[in-house]
Amino acid sequence: MAADCVYSIIGKKPFDLVIKNVKIINVFTESIVKGDIAVTGDTIAYIGKIDFPCTARREIDGAGRYAVPGLIDAHMHIESSMMAPARFAELILACGTTTVAADPHEIGNVCGAAGVRALAEASANMPLHVLMMAPSTIPSAPGLERSGWSVGAAEMEEMLDIPGVAGLGEVMDFNGVADGDERLLGVVEAARKRGVIMDGHVPALTGARLQAFRSTGVDADHTDMSLPRAREKLAAGFSIQIQNSFLAKDLIEYVDQFPLQDRIMLITDDVPFIELIEHGHLNANVRRAIALGLRPLRAIRYATINAASRLRLYDRGAVSPGYKADILLMKDLEEIKPDMVFSDGQLVAENGRCLVRMERYKFPEEFYHSVHVLPLAAEDFALKTDLPPEAKEALIHVLGCNEVTTRTKNERRWVPVRGGQLDITGLVKVGVIYRHGCGLEKAPGKEVSLGLLAGFPDFQGALASTYAHDSHNLTVYGTDESDMALAANRLIEIGGGLCAVQDGKILAEVPLPVAGVLTEGEVDELKEQFGDFFRAVERVGLRHSHPMMFMTLMTLAVSLEIKCTDMGLVDTLEKKFIPLVVEAR
Questions:
Q1: How much is the pLDDT for 2?
Q2: What's the predicted TM-score (pTM) here?
Q3: Are strands 462-465 and 428-433 parallel, antiparallel or unpaired?
């Protein structure tokens, strides 16, 4: 009760916890104050030197460490870790993240409102505080891809009634909004009438079209944060949420001096399992921002009180009286590596290890049977082109890739034609198969949509995944059609996951049995599985700095600039299908 903190300060009841001898980070003044922290129940009652009579049920010596608010991630996706919420929470609590706003559009694409409800239930009653955001754009590019569900105004209303759902998830069809798409605007309006938080995804709009998007009330973006785009978005009244891939020195210099500091946040968006293990969670982004020149106290502000204000969590995000006792103790403000993590006044992690074992959630049985695809054969991955018999070469559309970014260039290149077939030496096929079935019976199909990737000349074999943004159709990369069929069929057999094949042999696999996007495995088991898989990725020849992100984003039809969906090649700027073969001569 509200009076308990007062009673503790005036000596009528003991504090539950006192942390002595710490350097307290004040996110309101961006200053550091030496003193103590007194906690009653789950709330901070007092900060500063305790020079009045009191008692405490537990006392901890902070040993001169910094006391930092628990980190708050204002935009992320639990499913990007491919871990079920319980194990995911254990991992990121140890990194210092105590609150997240999670958009479950991955499982929503597969399982619909039932998936959103299940993830909300699985994320409830944990020391990690989880706000769910109702996925707004399923499918992400209607008419250009198919998923397992479709969201309209009625579906949005249904999701906003789910306990734990706090707002509208990122509106990804930015062109649809700017073009006045009635269905999508109806989804946004359903959320606007509820007065909830509304997130955006606006990588390509500028000028009047950007302002049209902002006029709907959607007021945050986490996509393209090149300096000109970030400047324009801030000027239009957006909150900007900066993920790791957009952290750059010029942007850091700009935001560090921006006059209105409360609209700037650091977020994760997507962090694959292996990067969580190797680098951490939101603390890794804060660390990198500091390394690029952002003042440490400002970087901490971007990942605490600013995020809390955005999420309307007015009692989190600060080490201050009346705020929930989400506190990190750490020796160094540049490393952002907590020695101790408190959530609601309880010690939940210490020295990089979670001390609380979260109860495993039982997902509905149908979530374990989500890959509705008939067995595939090598010939299903053969390019079928209608070329004239006299053709010697053909102009084709290619997804131009490189080893660093996940953005694809729409390349047109001439390739030889031999015996009526394209000579695609040096290119990698990408095949996408709709896996969600048709109608209530989930009748399986097997039609393969094919595209070609450039940029990976050493690729030999096949890689397959049922985790593919955002529709999560079965996606296979390869140079050998038999290997591609083997990799795809293995995932059909085990109910989804990742698989690497070369020379007719399965090199490694990571089962993702829950909706084909999540595993319930333990961290040590996953380390071994992912380690084997990434060694196989290297052996197959996918040379990329972020291979998991790359593999999962080649089907995302709202990401620039050309992608391959289950329905064909898509020019994502023009929102239209394009042919593989442009012309032949």
A1: 75
A2: 0.94
A3: unpaired
